[in-house]
Amino acid sequence: xxxxxxxxxxxxxxxxxxxxxxxxxxxxxxxxxxxxxxxxxxxxxxxxxxxxxxxxxxxxxxxxxxxxxxxxxxxxxxxxxxxxxxxxxxxxxxxxxxxxxxxxxxxxxxxxxxxxxxxxxxxxxxxxxxxxxxxxxxxxxxxxxxxxxxxxxxxxxxxxxxxxxxxxxxxxxxxxxxxx
Length: 180
Fold this sequence. Notes:
This protein is of the alpha+beta class. The protein has helices at residues 27-33, 45-63, 81-93, 107-111, 125-133, 160-165, 171-179, and strands at 6-10, 73-76, 97-99, 118-122, 140-145, 149-152, 156-159.
């Protein structure tokens, strides 16, 4: 029996203040709200190096056939934030994603393009979380791959089929249409 991959996320620095994620320069601010200014997310070069080092080790071991932990996907959280990251993972795999209630609680959390974040798809989320936390990078499981919808409670509920057919359009337009 194949284990259902979980989505493990490497969150932004200062996780206790998740609500402080800046949206300056983000697609959400620019495309939906016409705001191209604002406070840009801060980059911590040392933390970014640690995120890259752990990710490189995990992916290299998987590619070499000697994985310490099973990984079925990795995606950066950048242009379009977590929303686009999850949508692209759903489109690539043809599977939905169910994000745990409370894991993403606001549009800023969903659309922030804060640096040094990624989503790792794995049936072993605790092992992935451990690999990052041992290097001083906070990580958390945010949900699991399942079904045929991208579901972020209270924020997004879209069929993967709609994501795939609207992929050529802006995700922000697809999300706005779904809320109507």
